[in-house]
């Protein structure tokens, strides 16, 4: 064979190889394009937006920071009800709370709104594998038909030490905190992370898209976490919040006795907490945030290792805010911003890269947004508004949100927070108005000041126009 002929053969072989390779790439791309995106749905209990990407630099959460840097961060996201059971059921149905629907921690979606097609049910009906891990709804078996699998960790009330377990066994709630020299997997959220990682490995081999959840229980009370996370913080450097006061201008209805915390051992039954105890609680909260940050990091690392990152939407949310001494309050159950404002971040492959938005977003907006992102029609029971236009770089047309707890209903509009306590007929018996541009800590109630009465009347009308058509009748 001549050298010229030999060269032609070599060129032909190379061209065939290149074309075959290119064809394979195109085929894989086509499969990727036609397969619906997976969703990793991370729910965190009692997580307030006191995080680095919200301007707070004292909590150590490197994995959340990294995720935020790859996501769209919502600077003004608000839960619709500041209590876990109701907030979760509202989010999962995309429906607003009313006078009688979604009112407390112990409600069930199946009882309060059985006719609503939940987000996991919508996805399951479209061929998604749906797995509920940890705390997604308040009750394990709520909306059970929507899930291919429901799993909860067994963790002996989330205490690691035998002494703490004995105290819990003999009291209503046990100790409010624990720092034990144990592996992360001893506590509930460490077990949950391992389960989610195992699920990812199994799901990778499937041709079905998945809706995989990770329901984390911390930083909910009790503040129990491995000691190494407590050691990240110096308690001597922890300070009580600047808003550690209850102004006389604020309606008494706005305050409560934080009964959720009072049920724990060694917590006074009434009155302010001793300063040392208050700082110990704040310390415990910080430790728990760092602990769950590490668990989230393990899961996200596995998502990347399995090469699922580019086909998986990751959304992380906290079910409501939490008071850490703000207004001398602890826990949630109020309509101050500290209980309503929540962390919300979403990573969409090819769309997000650390952008931030000031658009006011409600939790009922999450359902229609995820449905739109995966190409599904939104059921008519959903009352939220998709935030996908924001992901596409467009300006949000929405500048308001509505939140409710018991008789208190709050309209959040621009910089104003307006709350009315109303009876069953919708008649107000107390009011509260804050202007965050002048008073971000909500210490000066404007609602009863003569010069604001015109503004109050307009906000009162707008509140009723926006709290939902079935608010008083359902």
From TrEMBL:
All residue ranges annotated as the Sulfatase N-terminal domain in the record: 37-375
Family, as annotated: Belongs to the sulfatase family.
A GO molecular-function annotation: metal ion binding
Protein name: Iduronate sulfatase
UniProt keyword terms in alphabetical order: Calcium, Hydrolase, Metal-binding, Signal
PROSITE patterns the UniProt entry points to: PROKAR_LIPOPROTEIN
One cellular component (GO) term of this entry: cytoplasm
Organism: Polaribacter aquimarinus
